[in-house]
């Protein structure tokens, strides 16, 4: 008998799962049984999404009771089961290895993050899906297939939204471990940031700009620098100074939960904003994020700033990051370097749903793509219009899952699946 628990809600509580229960298979045989018994299945991982991408009217499955494995090989690591970056990073570090980047928090699952194109920042850093070298996926018949870069379906399987089946293992590219020094700068004017976004966003290995689109006291630049980065000189040259006093991200008060500033430390202790041993962000929030070509950054920022008074009541903070281009068919950075324009909103669904179309209209001239795991109201046809390989992705999904066992309302709405 497969164990169950209540399905509950996502991390921030803005989405209550439609399924009443989550199935908790204990091994691959039970996982295959759970899939074959259900007409429709989605995986619930660490639940850090803000929409119904991971929901279903059928059965929810979690891998949380299944065995976990982390195998570090020469230049890659294979993780099996429900593994978070917080679990993975220290194991890699102990072997002298590292990932190229991390998102703002390490509490998320490797499978869930890579399934949705989760990213950190850095003009040379692709999103976390771009580090995938292979995935192993259980299909509706219970068979497991490995998709590596040589497989024709790899560009769909590495960032799949869970539409091909249950990802049982992920392999990621690694590199030798490295040190990072983080610093937060204040005093850089919006004109200096938006006038030449490339100058600020490319001054270090990873750069995040925080803003509330008006109050200069909320404009911060958080850099994560490698040896040789010239961020300190560049940002001081723009009037910046290292933060003195407590760190506030717009209207989010950090409470001894952020990573260290001013000293060098291993990559995984500096690249996320939030520490693995602390609760991240605000919690009582909804997030959205939009991706536009980096080449249009200046115009896109000007367009959002012009309409900001229409949404700032709902806003806790915005963050601007960069993601390097990749070749994954559903990636927000598919074949283009992008500026990521992020919004952390108050946890007020009606208010956020009013604000989103205004932001989306402002960014529409820039061929805007949404973050798959965050709130958006763009129509499916608008989303597909910006992704030249969306139809190829859908063809792979139909071939891999002919009965639509892993499809849901989100995939139907956004991809017409
Ligand atoms: C506080 C906070 C900070 C965040 N910071 C960032 C950030 O810095 N950058 C960024 O890009 N995003 C960020 N996000 C968004 C988040 O990282 C993504 O939405 C990510 O998808 C969450 O993964 P999850 O496993 O927690 O979510 P889940 O909702 O559990 O899973 C995500 C999706 O993947 C599918 N999935 C998960 N596991 C499997 C599997 N084994 N097989 C098949 N399908 C699977 C699920 O069905 C779902 O569709 C943040 C979210 C929060 C709450």
From TrEMBL:
Organism: Microbacterium mcarthurae
Alphabetical UniProt keywords: Oxidoreductase
Protein name: D-arabinono-1,4-lactone oxidase
Pfam families assigned: ALO, FAD_binding_4
Keyword Oxidoreductase among record annotations: yes
PANTHER family in alphabetical order: D-ARABINONO-1,4-LACTONE OXIDASE, L-GULONOLACTONE OXIDASE
Record-annotated FAD-binding PCMH-type domain positions: 15-177
InterPro entries linked: ALO_C, FAD-bd_PCMH, FAD-bd_PCMH-like_sf, FAD-bd_PCMH_sub1, FAD-bd_PCMH_sub2, FAD_lactone_oxidase-like, Oxid_FAD_bind_N, Vanillyl_alc_oxidase_C-sub2
């Amino acid at each position: 008998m497969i164990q169950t628990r209540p399905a509950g809600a996502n991390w921030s509580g803005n989405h209550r799962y439609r399924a009443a229960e989550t199935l908790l298979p204990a091994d691959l045989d039970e996982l295959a049984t759970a899939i074959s018994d259900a007409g429709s299945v989605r995986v619930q991982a660490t639940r850090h999404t803000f929409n119904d991408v991971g929901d279903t009217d059928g059965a929810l499955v979690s891998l949380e009771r299944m065995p976990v494995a982390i195998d570090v090989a020469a230049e890659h690591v294979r993780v099996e089961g429900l593994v978070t970056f917080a679990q993975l990073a220290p194991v890699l570090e102990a072997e002298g290895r590292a990932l190229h980047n991390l998102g703002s928090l390490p509490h998320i699952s490797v499978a869930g993050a890579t399934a949705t194109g989760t990213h950190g920042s850095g003009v040379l850093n692709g999103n976390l899906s771009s580090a995938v070298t292979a995935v192993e996926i259980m299909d509706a018949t219970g068979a497991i297939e490995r998709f590596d870069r040589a497989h024709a379906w790899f560009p769909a399987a590495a960032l799949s939204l869970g539409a091909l089946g249950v990802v049982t293992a992920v392999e990621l590219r690694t590199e030798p471990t490295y040190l990072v020094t983080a610093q937060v700068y204040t005093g850089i004017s919006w004109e200096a940031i938006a006038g030449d976004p490339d100058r600020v966003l490319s001054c270090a290995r990873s750069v995040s700009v925080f803003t509330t689109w008006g109050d200069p006291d909320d404009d911060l630049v958080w850099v994560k620098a490698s040896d040789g980065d010239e961020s300190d000189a560049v940002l001081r040259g723009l009037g910046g100074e290292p933060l003195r006093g407590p760190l506030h991200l717009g209207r989010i008060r950090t409470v001894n939960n952020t990573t260290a500033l001013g000293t060098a430390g291993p990559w995984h202790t500096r690249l996320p904003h939030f520490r693995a041993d602390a609760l991240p962000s605000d919690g009582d929030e909804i997030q959205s994020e939009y991706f536009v070509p980096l080449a249009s950054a200046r115009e896109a920022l000007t367009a959002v700033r012009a309409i900001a008074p229409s949404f700032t009541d709902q806003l806790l903070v915005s963050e601007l990051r960069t993601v390097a281009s990749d070749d994954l068919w559903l990636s927000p950075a598919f074949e283009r370097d992008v500026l990521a324009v992020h919004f952390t909103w108050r946890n007020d669904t009606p208010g956020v749903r009013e604000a989103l179309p205004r932001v989306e209209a402002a960014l529409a001239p820039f061929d805007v793509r949404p973050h798959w795991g965050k709130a958006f109201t763009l129509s499916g046809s608008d989303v597909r219009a910006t992704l030249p390989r969306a139809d190829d992705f859908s063809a792979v999904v139909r071939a891999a899952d002919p009965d639509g066992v892993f499809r849901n309302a989100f995939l139907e709405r956004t991809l017409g699946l």
